[in-house]
Amino acid sequence: MQNDLGGEPPRAERPEEPSRVDGGRRGALKVLVALGGAAYAGAIVLPAATMLAPSSEGGVGAARWMRVCRLAELSEGEPRRVVVVGDERDAYTVTKDQLLGSIWVTKKGESVTALSAVCPHLGCSIDLNGDKQSFSCPCHTSKFSLAGAAEAGPSPRGMDPLVVRVVDGHVEVDFKLFRQGIAERKEVG
Ligand code: FES
């Protein structure tokens, strides 16, 4: 029989384990902190991404129709170099009436074709040869057919074709630039 004085020795007190409720609260707190951090990071990254993204107007993949000459100015079968003047855009500004590049336009019967004058090798300006039967690049002597096919030299591909339309007697070109030095035709702007 036990009495008040001689019972079992007092048990050492065990530190109280965190209850499931406390653990749940801490977990919820961690989630809230993580969510807050993510939201904060998003608040910083999103505006930066927006600034770096190409503008939908005139960006990669978007049509950029430029009026380059009158149809009546083209001689049958003879390529004519025309300059492309338009607005230059970056993430912050638009600069009006800038020289954007030049292209070769050719009329044959009812059809009008255009080739970028930018050499796909390293970007020099491609010339029409004296016989008007082929193109060549003065920088490293790449040579191209009248249709723009690569025939000789280091250019990794033919001249870059551009889409043409005729509107009210004016030739318009969907002006694009392409990456240089690679065989694949990849638009850059
Ligand atoms: S830049 Fe045209 S051949 Fe090199």
UniProtKB/TrEMBL annotation:
UniProt biased composition (Basic and acidic residues)? 10-23
Q: Which InterPro entries match?
A: Rieske_2Fe-2S (IPR017941), Rieske_2Fe-2S_sf (IPR036922), Rieske_Fe-S_prot (IPR014349), Rieske_Fe-S_prot_C (IPR005805)
Which cofactors are reported in the record for this sequence? [2Fe-2S] cluster
Q: Where is the Rieske domain?
A: 66-173
Q: Where is this region: Disordered?
A: 1-23
SUPFAM superfamilies in alphabetical order: ISP domain (SSF50022)
Entry keyword set: 2Fe-2S, Disulfide bond, Iron, Iron-sulfur, Metal-binding
Q: By its UniProt entry, which PANTHER family does this protein fall under?
A: CYTOCHROME B-C1 COMPLEX SUBUNIT RIESKE, MITOCHONDRIAL
Q: Which protein are we looking at?
A: Rieske (2Fe-2S) protein
Q: What is the scientific name of the source organism? A: Polyangium sorediatum
